[in-house]
Amino acid sequence: MVAPVTAGGRAACVVGVGETRYAKWGGITDASEYQLATQAVLAAIADAGMTPDDVDGLASFAEDRNEATFMAADLGLPELRYASLSWLPGGGGACAAVANAAMAVESGAAEAVVVYRSLCQGQFRRFGRGPGNIAARAGPPRVPHVRRATSLLEANVAFTMPFGVFGPPIAYSMVLRRHMHRFGTTAEQMGHVAVTMRAHAARNPRAVMGDRPMTMDDYLASRMVSEPFRLFDCCLENDGACAVLVTTAERAADSAQRPVALLGAAQGTLQGFGFGQYSNVGMPDDDYASGGSRGVAARLWARSGVGPGDVDVAQIYDHFTGLVLLSLEDFGFCPRGEGGPYAASGALAWPDGALPTNTHGGSLSEAYIHGLNHVVEGVRQLRGQSTCQVAGAETCLVTSAAGVPTSALVLGVR
Amino acid sequence: MTERWFPDDMPMPAANAETVGWWEAAADHRLVVQRCTACGRTRHPPGPVCPRCRSSASEWSALSGTGTVYTYAVVRQAFIPSLQDRVPYIVIAVDLDGASGARMVSNLVDVEPEEVSVGMAVEVAWEDMGPELALPRFRPGPRR
Questions:
Q1: For a Cys staple, B94 with which of A353, A369, B53, B67, CB 3.0–4.6 Å?
Q2: For the segment A117-142, what is each residue's pLDDT rounded down to a tens digit?
Q3: Is A125 near chain B, with CB under 8 Å?
Q4: What is the mean pLDDT of chain A?
Q5: Domains along chain A?
């Protein structure tokens, strides 16, 4: 992955994927978020035909509550030789965490690294309510005042949250409004993303919304959250965990599953992007009205030696329908400003679209596990195990969240 | 504005060494932007170093308070219960006159959601939240 030609026997591969059950927000009450994380990690290890005794690394991203150090002890790993947490925020870091694991095994720092994510929103505060939850607690009336910030993020979102920007739906609906203004993007075009993801989920027994079909009329009738985003433009809130196991090609040769190679990876952000459009809105117009993934895309294609025309299937982070359109533009599947018409052409639909996308149903309809489930689905596609299997799929693009510093992978078979 | 626009339990801003000056100016109803005294570049949110020339020297530069709507959202979901009777409200990103590259996020008030548009002229309207906190909202400004 880092050096696909020279890494040889140490070239990184994904050989294990694991998931817990996925349930709607608050639907899992018999296991803690942390216990689910351990279950997903153990499932990925078992899927690879390995045991915890073979694992010496753990990786995650973005303020994970389930620290690798404790997990290593609780899982009884013989020795933790590598642990990392990507700085990339929110859902931007899933692919980066896999890439960091790959760099660890290719460098020899570790032999087998499990990347994990557990997200039980029912057990913790709901995303998008931010400090409002704390503020809304019963108590004596407070005199509005300026508090001391305890993090750079807190000082930065002070310039948005007091104005009612409570979460990503509001910040990114503003991005889509600008995109609509410039390029004529429409609600129906965003609706194609929602309806297509839901159709894919209908075939996936793990999908939280698998039994909830959606038509374009259903989409258009869903209530407005933050115009131009409707409820069905927004991803799910749910409980669940998943994990992937990364090891060397040499070790992968003994794996129970067909190894999936990492053909390339890239991570990062554009100049002045900060936390993305969630915190910074002063960037040039071409950057603001985009997914901010242009630089990641350019480096990804250069390193992997493939381009958008070579991709058989894609798993594109879908926290919001509109940002899928922007990612399609950033990664070069269509010209700038034409993400909407591209999606409306049916390109994303399995099995006949030009680019079957989110064949598990995505964060909009399978589960919102900060996009690590998109990596899992990419691996399944290249093993031939998807519930929306693309015939003969050999190359899969996986992207993490647009609109924040982000990352992406090209998965392949060698 | 005489009437408070958002409820008391809205999240209060948090400030650090780099940003507290902006909030102090706001409390005095002065809309300012951080300007690098070495190269003149304006930036927002405030930070410790000029991203262009890397100077640590900066000043608070007064703005006229006029600008144009760059983009906006009409928020219809009450993300905290006390906002139930305040929705819909309009969040804007505003291009401020005299502060290129230093767009700010705020609210557009005194206007119906159907009337807001990209490019609309706006001017600052201060809302006192408490003795030591004022927030700059915007309302439609003189047509230019």
A1: B67
A2: 999 988 886 544 444 333 444 444 45
A3: no
A4: 93
A5: 8-123+235-412 (3.40.47.10)
